[in-house]
Automatic annotation (TrEMBL):
GO molecular function: translation initiation factor activity
Name recorded for this polypeptide: Eukaryotic translation initiation factor 3 subunit L
Organism of derivation: Triticum aestivum
Localization per Swiss-Prot or TrEMBL: Cytoplasm
PANTHER family in the record: EUKARYOTIC TRANSLATION INITIATION FACTOR 3, EUKARYOTIC TRANSLATION INITIATION FACTOR 3 SUBUNIT L
GO biological process: formation of cytoplasmic translation initiation complex; translational initiation
């Protein structure tokens, strides 16, 4: 199943488990191929055959959707119940797939159907939290479950905020289903999965060699279930994403803290999870002025995509991988324009970045009207689809407020950019000197000494940030101090990465050998 994190907002499930747009659709008709699919999927889930479940989930479901249900819903859960012994948990999983297919393929859809999907997630997560779930599911499915849950919440908030052209019936449904996709309910379910799974404690014990969660990719090879633990793990990423959508970046990063991004983890196994984690982590750090942390992670994930995207070309997620790839290049361009850190960027990533955004990055260094327009354009293209979580007041004159949260975040971002307007000039001069008097620099910059001192203090402030441990760290690629009215510049020394150089040469050598092997000698 394709991950949901880049689809257009405003879609919802169709009527009553199946009353979709196609008049010929019969929710009770189950084609033979669907009967076979349900029977086999149910059996594999009972047998905990993760490999076969993954094949049917990623391949079989997609192929049947393309062949039989391109623009109609799947048969209702009630119709397929006889082929899975009416198993309650299996039918909750089936409905989860059913609604996900509806969100991806069918439109326009209504508030009542969004509410039905919400209720199904509540039932499914309640079983996981409070029942006995004795099954193993593929990590891809469990990630998509959390990803889709967050997406549908985001989609409902956007749908609810577009009031201007809604009919009386649609407004009545919004009043009727006002409890669906409540922000507190969404956050509580994800937090409950994190806490009940004890995933933070598991990851902590893993550091001491007492757990093997990452080594087994989250699976339980002792006959148990991986569902609660892996859902809890991915829920930390889901919480990061929701808090980014709400503009609460500090809380989002705090939710992700148990996951060590400097090591391989379960989040890197699924490409959608890997990209979503780094995208939202990087964006949150960018908005908190932790430019170095954002730049490092964007560089790593973009280099990873360069190396491995060819292996995902047949994946249903491939288009979304490419789109997030482009957005992260835009965010990296913003980071490097606000806080140049070219020493942190790999040569391959740097080459791609220059091809895409060299002209815009040149403009953004000037801090004039064109620069602000470039910052506005890149931010608007690359930022998440922010949401307003509070329900609308339906008694007031009806207007669309779905863009309000985005406009607020853009305003705050551009305000930060404007505050740094004079800092680029300071940086340009200081890079030329190892020492310079305040009087001389003030003359060069055509300002009085008091103003210059104020700007120097501003530069110190803007180029420092509080890291996740509460320590104040520098984001600048050089530092300075003032002693007796003389500014002394301290250039940071870059760490030579010999390993990267040798890896690039090895890859080139292997490509050369592969080309030579193709040459046929007479």
């Amino acid at each position: 199943m394709a991950s949901a994190y880049d689809r257009e907002d405003g879609l919802a499930p169709p009527q009553q488990h199946g009353g979709g747009p196609a008049d010929a659709y019969d929710p009770n008709y189950v084609p033979d191929s669907v009967k076979t699919f349900v029977v086999h999927l149910y059996r594999h889930i009972r047998d905990k055959n993760v490999y076969e479940i993954h094949q049917m989930y990623e391949g079989g479901f997609q192929r049947l959707s393309d062949r039989l249900f391109r623009d109609t819903p799947w048969p209702s859960a009630e119709a397929v119940a006889p082929y899975c012994d009416g198993d309650h948990v299996f039918l909750l999983l089936y409905r989860e797939l059913w609604y996900r297919h509806a969100y991806a393929r069918l439109s326009p859809l209504t508030a009542s159907h969004r509410s039905e999907s919400w209720n199904n997630y509540c039932d499914l997560f309640s079983v996981v939290l409070h029942g006995v779930v004795n099954m193993q599911l593929p990590n891809q499915w469990l990630w998509d479950m959390v990803d889709e849950f967050v997406y549908q919440f985001q989609s409902f908030c956007q749908y609810r905020a577009k009031l201007k052209n809604k009919t009386e019936d649609e407004l009545q449904q919004l009043k009727q289903f006002d409890k669906a996709w409540n922000v507190y309910g969404v956050l509580n379910y994800l937090q409950a999965l994190v806490e009940k799974s004890m995933i933070a404690q598991i990851l902590e014990r893993e550091k001491e060699g007492l757990e093997s969660f990452t080594a087994t990719d989250g699976y339980d090879y002792q006959g148990g279930s991986n569902v609660l633990k892996v859902l809890g793990y991915y829920s930390m990423i889901g919480l990061l994403r929701i808090h980014c959508l709400l503009g609460d970046y500090h809380t989002g990063l705090k939710c992700l803290a148990p996951i060590n991004l400097n090591q391989q983890g379960v989040y890197t196994i699924v490409i959608g999870s890997h990209i979503s984690t780094i995208y939202h982590y990087g964006f949150a750090n960018l908005m908190m002025r932790r430019y170095v942390d954002a730049t490092k992670e964007f560089n790593k994930i973009l280099l990873y995509i360069i190396k491995y995207k060819q292996y995902h070309q047949k994946s249903p997620q491939y288009d979304q991988i490419l789109k997030k790839n482009e957005q992260m290049y835009a965010l990296l361009a913003i980071c490097l324009s606000l806080c140049p850190q070219n020493k942190l960027i790999d040569e391959n990533v740097s080459t791609q970045l220059k091809e895409k955004y060299n002209d815009k990055m040149t403009k953004m260094q000037r801090f004039d009207d064109e620069a602000y327009a470039a910052y506005d354009e890149l931010f608007s293209y690359a930022c998440p689809k922010f949401i307003t979580p509070s329900p609308p007041v339906l008694d007031q004159p009806l207007t669309n407020y779905n863009q309000d949260a985005y406009r607020l975040q853009l305003k705050l971002f551009l305000y930060e950019v404007k505050q740094q307007q004079l800092l680029s000039g300071i940086r340009s001069y200081l890079k030329l000197y190892s020492a310079i008097t305040i009087t001389k620099l003030a003359q060069y910059m055509e300002m009085d000494e008091a103003t210059l001192r104020s700007i120097l203090m501003t530069y110190k402030h803007k180029m420092h940030a509080v890291d996740s441990n509460g320590k104040i760290v520098s984001s600048a690629d050089f530092d300075f101090y003032i002693n007796e009215d003389v500014i002394h510049v301290v250039e940071s020394k870059s760490t030579k990465r010999h390993g990267d150089y040798f890896l690039r040469q090895i890859l080139k050598f292997e490509e050369t050998i592969a080309e030579l092997d193709k040459v046929q000698l007479d």
